[in-house]
Amino acid sequence: MTITHITAIPVIVPMHPDTVNSPEYDQPPAAGKRDAAQGQLAYDATASQGTGPHAMGGLLSDFDDLVKFILRVETDDGVVGVGETFRAASWASIQRNRAALIGCDPRRLDLRALPFPYDRAYIGFEVALYDLLGRAFGVPVHHLLGGRCRDRVRVDYWTGQRTPEDIARIARDAVAKGFTGLKFKCALEDPNVERVQAIHDAVGHRLALNLDPNERFYRPAETIRLARRLDGYNIAMFESPVPQWNIDWYVRLRRMLSIPVAFHIHLPYGGTERHLITAIKRDAVDYVNISGGVSAFIRMATVCDMAGIPVWHGSEVDLGILDMAAVHAAAAMPNCTLGSDLIGNFLREDDLIVDPIRFEGEWAQVPTGPGLGVELDDTAVRRYAVGEWR
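The structure corresponding to this sequence follows.
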């Protein structure tokens, strides 16, 4: 079996209207801009400032306007695997990775360490190869990861920065869909107590809340004051409340808060596995949000499992291929028991796969067919393509 051809299709799939921020929190246009002729994203230095888990910075209000690539990896015996990159993957990375794989036997590749750098294009090729090999061997991807621990994966609902009135509406929608957890973006300056009160007034304690400020609670003192004001509400955790480089601050927060504290490790955003190990050794976190790739998720979730730490699978509000890859990975880890961020098919105009992930309330069902268990919707791909298919 030899890889003979890899097609890369640049796409932009917008979010449904009013699914991210309230208008009051929409940020200025990001530095990113499309180059449809090249099918790539160019962005200036301001788009990559920072070193935290969300280091691309300032893109929440328009991240859906950034290019993704859909990949088709084909072999000489007719087996095809599909993949999806993170947003803002570069065309140069696509070309480099394709050149490294053409002519290879995919059965001889080490999927834990593919022969190119770990950047925003990496995961697209990794997922395509897992899908291809699953199809070739006639087994689902979770079988290649050691087998599934469960036949369904819990998912939390998600939204951006909202006014209290808007987030109450989102909470009612989440409960109506059968969710029991809601993650929302925030900052210290926001009316967070008013938001939480509005959610409580709308749905009571039926939603456990993950406040995710992307390190914008800034310092332990401010975080502790906010936590005290939220006493009595159904707060599941603070995710990345303060800068993650300062492990001492997380140790302090765990000692002083009754609200659990979570870390977010996302490799393409600058997170490292050693950073995770340091946090575990220092007893600095209750939970960990892991994203950045299939093999990396399994590796880091295994470390957390040995330390007795529950995890969930993060995302970038992706399309159907990446979300389904995450379903397989989450199903393969016994400690992936928290609500994962696999919500893109509710929020995007299209997921670009023929049959969407099947949900029963908050539970994503794990497919049992070969590979990822998805088929690319070529009609939808053509509709959202923004450049040449190469």
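The longest helix spans residues 122-137.
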